[in-house]
Amino acid sequence: MASTVLQNSWILDFKLWPAEYTGNEGFGDTAVGVLAQSLEKALREAEVDPTKLEDECAVLKCSLYKKSTISPVSQLSWQQINESYKENCGSFFHLVDLLLSIPTSSAGCLTWLQSGQAHQDRLAQFSPMTA
């Protein structure tokens, strides 16, 4: 299960996003779905509805590409867009925060999150801005 999460976390790397949105609207949908399913227990404990993740990701992708005429999507960072889109895509940003908080070299942390032992209050209060 840990490798599934790490394999699908590529969605966090804006450099891996397509240069153009048109014709690529569904990119990352499968990855987000797999992540939502794999981390469902931890997300629900943080009062995040995993069923909203794919729709919110689609809204975010569409919005980012519309604004990409100013700055290419490949040059964005999660910190830059968090505040602007947090209100409309809050559940998806919880997933992003959760993934960004997992050390890629520590399967133990991921196992702990998947086991449901993660504390709801810590996940709910986590912000990459202060990490």
Task: Describe the protein's architecture and organization.
The chain has helices spanning 2-8, 29-38, 40-45, 53-66, 78-85, 90-100, 107-114, 120-125. The chain has 131 residues and is mainly alpha-helical. The chain has one domain. Helix 1 (2-8) runs antiparallel to helix 2, helix 2 (29-38) runs antiparallel to helix 4 (53-66) and helix 4 (53-66) packs across helix 6 (90-100). The model has no long low-confidence stretch (mean pLDDT 84).
What layout of secondary structure does this protein have?
Blueprint: H1 2-8, H2 29-38, H3 40-45, H4 53-66, H5 78-85, H6 90-100, H7 107-114, H8 120-125
Helix pairs in contact: 1-2, 2-4, 4-6
Order of helices and strands: HHHHHHHH
Can you count the helices?
8
Query: What is the total tally of β strands?
Result: 0
* Average of the residue pLDDT scores: 84
Class by SSE composition: mainly alpha
Radius of gyration: 14 Å
Q: How many domain modules?
A: 1
Q: How big a fraction of the residues is strand?
A: under 5%
Principal-axis shape? globular
Uncertain segments of ≥5 residues (pLDDT<50)?
Answer: none
Please summarize the sheet with the most strands: none
Q: Please state the oligomeric state of the protein chains shown.
A: single chain
| End-to-end CA span | 25 Å
Specify the helix fraction band. 40-55%
